[in-house]
Amino acid sequence: MEDIKNTFSEYHIPVLFYETMEHLITDKDGVYLDCTLGGGGHTEGILKSTSEKAKVISIDQDQQAIDFASKRLEPFKTRWKVYKDNFENLDTVLYCAGYDKIDGILMDIGVSSTQLDDEERGFSYRFDTKLDMRMDKNNPVSAYEVVNNYSEEQLSKIIFEYGEERFARKIARFICEARKEKNIETTGELVSIIRRAYPARSQKHPAKKTFQAIRIEVNRELEVLERAIEKAVKSLKKGGRLAIITFHSLEDRIVKNKFKELEKGCTCPPELPVCMCGKKPQVKVVTRKPVCAGDDELKYNNRAHSAKLRVVEKI
After folding, report:
1. Which residue of 79, 147, 185, 212 is 20 to 30 Å from 157, comparing CA positions?
2. Cβ atoms < 10 Å from Cβ of 240
3. pLDDT digit string (tens) for 194-211?
């Protein structure tokens, strides 16, 4: 337990730390990619769990995360490189780092604790600040553009699909009505609008699902995830592993279905007597059921309650 806590930083608590190291690292001398650097917890874990011959590459689109982790990982600078990019470009990053096929890839999907707790980033409904929600501050589309420029139909669609919000239509309508008077500029204003669409006695915060949906839209999270999985599998050596940690059902469903598809190979209709597509299985699923946090971790890390780890191995 102390070993895990010593790996934590004030930036971000790495979820499913031991379980990830156990499933991901198959070669102590290998090359590994952490697609979502964050506070550097998982990257540091990989560096400490491998030999001096091993190399680790990290990706993050948030310069704040890169700056923090670079100081933290200074002792490992001869074995570690970091690139500012979106992990959907992981193949390009590996090429720039000088690698074709590597031994393991990790994706920790979602928003870090520090991003959520940073009032200026506008990710959380707990603070009244400007609408933003961009993981990459150079992204031209922020939550402000989504809330004020999307049509009622578009807003309803993303809030329903990405937030799984049953009051999506009502919330979208109220947003469009409110912005006729003036643009919606802050998270506090948006929360007030959403509250009007919710039953008064709702147990969960009424803005949670809508904020999730807008964040996913701003950062193209689900689109990026599906594309990145395909690129990751192509970038693995035979026997190399891809480990993905998700935090909500939409992400987990994409990972689960994509892993099944890659394991099956053939996509021909079942009524065909022989395969016509020629697709072969690319991976074997290591975790038939997702790995979830144990009781000890749940006591000190609230984010771990919804975390699920799924792993495949390249064949």
Report:
1. 185
2. 24
3. 999 988 776 678 999 999
